[in-house]
Amino acid sequence: MMSSPKEIMRENLWTNNPIFMQILGICSALAVTNLMINTLIMTLGVVFVTAMSNLTVSLMKSLIPRKVRMIVQTLIIAFYVIIVDILLRAYLPDISRALGPYVGLIITNCIIMGRAEAFAQSNPPVLSLWDGVTSGMGYMGVLMTIAFVRELLGFGTVLGFPVLPSGFEPWIIMVTPPSAFFLLGIIIWIGKTIMNKEGATA
Q: Which of 29, 50, 73, 108 is a Cys-bridge partner for 132, taking CB atoms 3.0 to 4.6 Å apart?
């Protein structure tokens, strides 16, 4: 039975979140979550690519031969990633340089390929677009949470604006990559604990 938009949103944002339930796309947690602005731009790029890739795959699914389905999906994803990369280079060159090769690596993000194959390949275009948007938002929510904690404790700022007292001593560990996995582990633990309690009371 086809899921409703509300069910799709709940699943992608919570019960089947691509980060803390499926454990997909976690390399980004290590790579880009030391500053919130970098994380925001990166995750918006992923939302755009996931949504548009889903829409395109759904529109073209009857035209794509089964034997080359995965190759065509990869090409579609790469097309939208190139658009994101060009726009960043043109309008946000500083952030583009800060993100470096990680924008290009959106192509290899398992979340995008997973939604194209698992959902867009067998669902209508509008629902596929919505699935892509909400999957990207589920990814964004987790990474922005990690980036918020890392930037706040590592630099004393939020989105580049100082928010902690001048005497605050930054936690150096928060600007190093291992802190991202530590925080991700905490988020996964909290999320699964809440879900287990919800399941026990259902």
A: 50
- Measure the CA–CA gap between 183 and 16, rounded to whole angstroms: 19
Q: What string of DSSP letters covers 64-99? A: S-GGGHHHHHHHHHHHHHHHHHHHHHHH-HHHHHHH
Number of neighbouring beta carbons within 10 Å of residue 105: 14
> What pLDDT, in 10s, does the model give residues 131-158?
999 999 999 999 999 999 999 999 999 9
- Give the structural domain span for 78: 5-200
Please tell me the pTM assigned to this model.
0.91
Q: Taking CA 13 as the corner, what is the angle to CA 100 and CA 196, rounded to the nearest 5 degrees?
A: 120
Name the nearest CA neighbour of 183 among 155, 136, 143, 154.
143
d(CA 32, CA 90): 20
